[in-house]
Amino acid sequence: AVIARDPAPVPTWVEIQTEETYWFWFRQRLLQYGKNVKLLSPKWLVKQLAAELRQTAQQY
Predict the structure, then answer these.
(1) What's the CA gap between 56 and 21, in Å, rounded?
(2) If phi over 0 gives left and psi between -120 and 50 gives alpha, with beta otherwise, what is residue 34?
């Protein structure tokens, strides 16, 4: 669900809230949006996802 939108004439962000049944699908949703995603909380999840993305980038 959309929580808030950038009110600027050329919007640069949209804040959404999502509820996923499985961790796998939540991760897929984050990866789908790539650099356009900024995960804010919970902090443990932010750290876990950041570590996973760093490990992935090291493969290239």
Answers:
(1) 24
(2) left
pLDDT, tens only, 1-58: 889 999 999 988 888 887 878 888 888 888 888 778 888 778 998 898 889 889 989 9
Instruction: Dump the DSSP string for 1-60.
Output: -EEEE--SSS---EEE----SSHHHHHHHHHHHGGG----S-HHHHHHHHHHHHHHHTT-
CA–CA dist 55, 31 (Å, integer): 14
